[in-house]
Amino acid sequence: MFCVAYSRRLPLFVARSCFFASSPKSVSGRKMPPKSAVVEEKIALGRVGSNLQVGIVGVPNVGKSSTFNLLTRQSVPAENYPFCTIDPNHARVIVPDARFDKLVEKYKPASAVPAFLQVTDIAGLVKGASEGAGLGNAFLSHIRATDAIFQIVRCFEDADVTHVEGGVDPVRDLEIISNELRLKDLEFLTKQLEQLTSKRNRGPADKEHEHMVDLTKRLVEVLEAGKDIRFGEWKNADIELLNTMQLLTAKPVLYIANMSAEDYERKKNKWLAKVKKWIDDHCPGEQLVPYSVKHETALLDQGKIEGSQLEKIITTGYHLLNLAHFFTAGEDEVKAWTIQKGTKAPQAAGKIHTDFERGFICAEVCKFEDLMEHGSEAACRAAGKYRQQGREYVVADGDIILFRFNVTKDAKKK
Ligand SMILES: Nc1ncnc2c1ncn2[C@@H]1O[C@H](COP(=O)(O)OP(=O)(O)OP(=O)(O)O)[C@@H](O)[C@H]1O
Ligand SMILES: [Mg+2]
Question: What phi and psi values does residue 221 have, to the nearest 5 degrees?
């Protein structure tokens, strides 16, 4: 698996690995500097962890399953009729990374494990889904289980491919999805507020309960103003509570405009500018990727990757989830370990083994570029390119790290 060295004099293990990031959990657990010097680190919206997934969402028959198949090289049914997908399909997609490929080329390891993105293909959403229309509530709960959204927007005309709303209009479709997700969040929060209020009427409330009531009211206000939760202004204390709710409109979105192969190739589509404007007006800062299921399928059939948007979609999804990875690299194995951005060295070490975190002493970090420039670990060390980092070190994407940790029996007991 990973390389571990042992020294007899000191019960010290050394593990080779490459990159990481720190979690909000570790942020709250650190020693704080004096108040005057503190600039509060913003907690990210979303679940904490590296086992996160992206859901493919959109109205029926717009190319969701076709996109899932292209991304994951699977062949789930993607037929020309609405609600072809009912139960969600799950798969892992390799996250392309040239650094990983170079490390594999260099070490020619017995085992090579890249980073993965988990993707779920979800049934189509229709107008009224929040009240049970179409497949309604069941698959809104499938969206709830994901952490970010790839929203497929139909920008292709094809009289043979039925549109449940009668005709192609991606801006209308964007409105439908956005309304349904907001309505579902509103329903959830209204129920939550009722429960919180009835609990308060039954006895004295604590501070946390009061905060929850106040936050729920503010969340409802944001949604009623037609805004998604991820665009509200939230303090860290709010975000900690928000992250326990899994609200649909708190999840970041990448919009994918699925157009005909001809439109994609000539870079012209009558809907694209309107879709972009809708996103800029309603979801400022979120990205739109022009794309075509038909063009991508043709590229795949010809074995070409040049001009494909799939890599961009996968890596953007990975970043939407706030994920990064570090590598363990040696002749036995080159492996990318997925972590959340901001993860500190001990928690990143814990991804490899809990002992690594429990007995953490330090991380020796080498940058990928330095390893490539100097050619070997020994040469990197001689050039002073292995930096010793402590518990507060925030692992950077692409770091190559050597963990030192103590695994005496005493340390294990703690
Ligand atoms: N860019 C495109 N141009 C033309 N046809 C397309 C394009 N993208 C997808 N299609 C066709 O649209 C039909 C529906 O595709 P797909 O099953 O992937 O949609 P879906 O969104 O998963 O549908 P459902 O909601 O029913 O599960 C298929 O026949 C597919 O080949
Ligand atoms: Mg489908």
Answer: -60, -45
Closest C-alpha to 348, from 358, 336, 359, 357: 357
Q: What's the one-letter identity of residue 62?
A: V
Do 136 and 273 lie in a common domain? yes
161 is in an annotated binding site: no
Residues 261-277 pLDDT 10s: 999 999 999 999 999 99
**CA 47 to ligand 2 center in whole angstroms:** 26
Distance 77 CA to ligand 1 centre (A): 10
Please identify, among 291, 319, 347, the residue that sits at the C-terminal boundary of a domain. Answer: 319
Range of the domain at 328: 4-31+322-413
Q: What is the pTM of this model?
A: 0.86
ipTM, two decimals, is 0.99
Residues contacting 383, CB < 8 A, separation 6+: 370, 374
Residues shown for the chain? 414
Same domain, residue pair 157 and 306 = yes
Same domain as 193, residue 327: no
The answer to whether 65 is annotated as binding is yes
**Higher-scoring residue by pLDDT: 256, 209:** 256
Mean pLDDT of the chain: 86
